[in-house]
Predict the 3D structure of the following.
Amino acid sequence: MQNFDYMTPTRLVFGKGVVEKLPAALAPIGKKVLLTYGGGSIKRIGLYDKVLELLKGFEIVELPGIQPNPKYDPSVLDGVRLCKEHGIEVILAVGGGSVLDCSKAIAAGACYDGDPWDLITYKVKAKAALPIVDIITLAATGSEYDSGGVISRTDTNDKIGYIDPLLYPAVSFLDPTYTFSVSRKQTAAGIADAMNHTIEQYFAEDTTLLNDGFCESMLRSLMVNGRKCLENPEDYTARAEMMLCCTYGCNDILSLGNSPSGWPCHGIEHALSGYYDITHGEGLAIITPRWMDHILSGRTLGRFVKYGINVFGIDPSLDPWEIARKAIDATYSFFESIGIPMHLREVGIDDSRIGEMAHHIAVNEGLEEAYVPLDEQAIKEILIASL
Ligand code: NZQ
Ligand code: ZN
């Protein structure tokens, strides 16, 4: 087992109606609030009105319109400007992962005098960040329990994971009823995102029985409960378990003590959504089985066999290579069965920029260090197989 040094300082407040605790949680943190949100879903589900009612007595400045794959310009820049102009003390992010990620970059940018891009690109290490409280309305990214935010810059096609312990939310409110309204497309993408977060951590050189079991259980739960959410979007029990699974997905708790895996599918997907603005979870679902095909070898066979038997219930008496093949097919079939388009062409990506993207990924994502190292040629082959 590898050494680790771990802390997640975020307070999780989970369950139906927990948003009532928002004023009490927010008051000791700050009275001047930047309320960030997306394109209007929080208004349609009545959450916007609820938050304003609860926060009477707080001074609220709003940053609406944060888009999926949140943009540096205008959203991060506008948010930083508003924080500085109004002396904001705390950011309240209400929405999906994009709203929260954008808020994290704003939180750091608000405490920095230079261009916030310096922080996002790690040219400068942030010395401070505003505290963040969130009400997450989409189960997917795990941003509510991690210290990362992913920011896109359209002029350079960059999509960068900005990670800093300063960015952990202080408090995250998770009420599964707010996810009842999430569309089929976004629910399926959320299942795929959280499954991939788990797979990224499961496929590593050194793992423990404990972590393997945690990951296998996460994957089974996400498949079972994810299907139930799609069949009945208002199934509270299923939405609740899916939400908690997603929360665990991205804060390293599934892989404490494991050797690093390099998160290769994310490295590849971030370029797809950086260049084409596609839905993150869909890009991951398309890439994952092709990446699995690519890395299956004598060295990795044992991982695939364990995954196939414990996650998909494949007959352990079969030949190991057959188990591995069936496991990859089962991964593909599950994503397809929940309605995810399984080819890049179906999400608007053709072969015209494959070489450019492969180069961008090879230069920026460090995948030579991944569990199975991927050079530019390997990345290109995975992208071509995904077309
Ligand atoms: O903008 P609004 O109107 O709010 O609509 C959103 C958006 O159109 C909608 N939505 C959110 N909650 C809803 C709802 N619709 C109905 N009812 C609700 N309750 O869903 C759409 C997608 O929202 P978005 O926030 O983009 O989705 P998600 O939470 O999947 O976030 C995706 C972003 O997170 C990044 C991705 O790369 C992508 O940019 N990631 C962040 C991570 C992190 N911070 O740790 C890790 C992930 O791997 C991922 O990279
Ligand atoms: Zn993800």
The mean pLDDT is 98.
